[in-house]
Structure formats: C-alpha cells, structure tokens
C-alpha cells in the first residue's frame, strides 16, 4: 500500500473515531447509519472499488471544519491516482458545504484548480486561481505559481511573466528560471519576425531573471549572427559552452561559421583542440577530422580510428566508412556501402536528445521538455549511439 493511501486511511480512521464519539449524542440513530456507510466506504477503498467508496464517503462525511482535512486528503489521493473526475467531485462537494473558514475555502479552491489543470480545463482553473491569488490568504503564493503554470500551458508568455513577476521571484529559483525561459520564448518570436530591438530587450530581461541561462547566450549569439556581428556571436557561444558544457555540440557549427567569417581558421582549430580536452564528443571529433582531411585524408582516418578506440560511436564509424570508401576497390566499395546503409539506419533509429528529468527522447533539441514540461532539462545524448 502506498504511503499516501496509508495516511488517508489513518485520517479516515481518526474521523471514524470521531463519528464513534458523536454516537453518544442525541442523533444516535441517524449517525449509526452514517457510521456504517463510513466503514463500508473504507472497505471499498481498501478493495480498490473507488466509485462505491467515493459515494459512501461523501454521504457519510458531512462537510464541516473537522472533516475538511479528510476530504482534501481523499481528493488529493484520487488526483494522484489519475482519477481526476472523482477528485473534482470531492472538492466541489467540499466547496458547496457550509461553515468552512476562509483559509479552508481557499485551500479547497486551490485543490480544485489543481484538478482542473490536470484535466486540461485551464480556463476553469484560471478563474479559481485568480480568486485565491487576489485575496490575502496563506495559499496566495501557491495559487500564483499554479497560475503561472496555466499561462505556460496556454503559451501566453506575457500573462505568465506578468503574474510570475508579481510573485516573490527571489524566493523561488525554479520560478526565476521559468520566467527567464518565458522571456526567451518572446525573444525567439521577435527574432523570427526580424524585430531585433524587442528581441534584445527580452533577452536582457531573461538574463535578469537568470544570469546563467545558456539559452540567453545562445539567442544572443543568434541575434549577433543575424546582425553580422561575428565577434559578439562567438563570445556569446563561448559563454554558453561555459554555462552548460553538455550543450557544446549545439554550438560547433555556428561557431565554425563565426570563425570562418572572421577569417580565423587558426583560432577555430585551437578552440577545437581545447574543447576536445575539456569535454570530448563525437561532433567535436568529426569537426577535428574534417580539419585534418583538408590537409590529408589518411591523417583524418588515423585520428578518427584512434578516437573511436577510446570512445566508440556509430556516428564516428559512419564517417570512417565514408573516408575508406574513397580509397576502396569496386568490390570493397560495394561491401562498405552495405555496411554504411546498416549503420546509417541504426543512427537514424536512435534519438539524439533526452530529457534528464523524465527520460523523454527525440531528435530535436527542446528547451522545454514536451513530456514533463521541465525547462532546460533536455541535453544531447552521449555514448555509443550519440555524441
Ligand atoms: Zn521531460
């Protein structure tokens, strides 16, 4: 039995005791019936018959200040089990009850909003959260955070920023990181439309929320490249690599372009060697090999072979086959072609990026994981089938 179910049952047993005490009161007969319902409900819950349990609990447990915690615990349990419709029923029943204090009402509204978010009913969640966030109560901060969640899901970055910025951002590093990404979303939108000034303003705002967000450096570099400011672009990309070394494969191609625009091939080659010693990856090996192959193909082949011994990778192996095909006889070329078909198919069948939070894998780099919605958790995959 999971811990949450155990806790709910303990809370429920407490209520059971309380019902037992009430038995001595004048309404003895009625409550005998309620108590029987209550224990039958407990039995249903233990036997995973949640529909029957829910009906009997709602019938047996009057809504009053003493039973609020049990209603909330049950609602939260159903939501976590994925039975959102039952959680909604419990919380709506709680809100329809009389005699609850202001804090208890706010708490019930917050829980119901949580249910609505999980059910995808975002406008209904928003309405409740605005009500909680606009009144002085202990749930205000939590309501604000959930409201940011709602606007994030709706991709309404302006509203998400407005609500999030009004909260005490310094108290939550996680919220500050999210706000920084919201600004980046707006910056990307502006960049896509060629609006450079607003793009820069959003990026400055993003940096104020989180000075270490590598996405800000990446977008600053993209903007600088669009403006043909290659020295600035290079600087921003190097900052990005320092902020998150795992993302280094992402900057290799644009960085190469910057060095080329600045006619600094020596600088590019020096950076490649330095990067390889700092954080080796297959993309770096291949970039290095391409440089070597400009002078001599056999040097490039020897280099890749040596690197593959140390860090085997399908991508590196493909490159090596390509090099060998140039020198092979007609017969050997056919065999190498078949081999390459297999390794290319293998490479294509494997994802290139994975979310460190939930494990979601795909072939595109997402700043927000499409599965768990975490920001900045997706990284290139390293190892035999990746970098
Ligand atoms: Zn994820």
Task: Give an account of the 3D structure.
The protein is mainly alpha-helical. Among the domains are: 168-267, Tetratricopeptide repeat domain (Serine Threonine Protein Phosphatase 5, Tetratricopeptide repeat); 350-387, Single Sheet (Rubrerythrin, domain 2). Helix content is 73%, strand content 2%. The protein has 19 helices and three strands. The protein has a three-stranded antiparallel beta sheet, with no helix packed on it. β1 (353-355) and β2 form a beta hairpin. α1 runs antiparallel to α2, α4 (68-80) packs antiparallel against α5 and α10 (173-192) runs antiparallel to α11. The radius of gyration is 30 Å and the shape is elongated. It starts with a helix and ends in a 7-residue tail after the last strand. The relative contact order is 0.04. The model has no long low-confidence stretch (mean pLDDT 85).
Summarize the structure.
With 387 residues, the chain is mostly helical.
What attributes does this structure have?
3-stranded antiparallel β-sheet, 19 helices, Serine Threonine Protein Phosphatase 5, Tetratricopeptide repeat, 387 residues, mainly alpha, single chain, binds zinc ion, Rubrerythrin, domain 2, 3 strands
General shape: elongated
Order of helices and strands: HHHHHHHHHHHHHHHHHHHEEE
- CATH uppermost class of one domain: Mainly Alpha
Strand order of the largest sheet: 2-1-3
Name the helicity range: over 70%
Which sheet architecture does the biggest sheet show?
3 strands, antiparallel
Low-confidence stretches: none
- The CATH homologous superfamily name of one domain equals Tetratricopeptide repeat domain
Distance between the termini: 42 Å
- Small-molecule components bound: zinc ion
What structural class do helix, strand and pairing data support? mainly alpha
The total beta strand count reads 3
Which value, in Å, is the CA radius of gyration?
A: 30 Å
Number of helices: 19
Q: According to CATH, what is the topology of one domain?
A: Serine Threonine Protein Phosphatase 5, Tetratricopeptide repeat
The average pLDDT value, as a whole number, equals 85
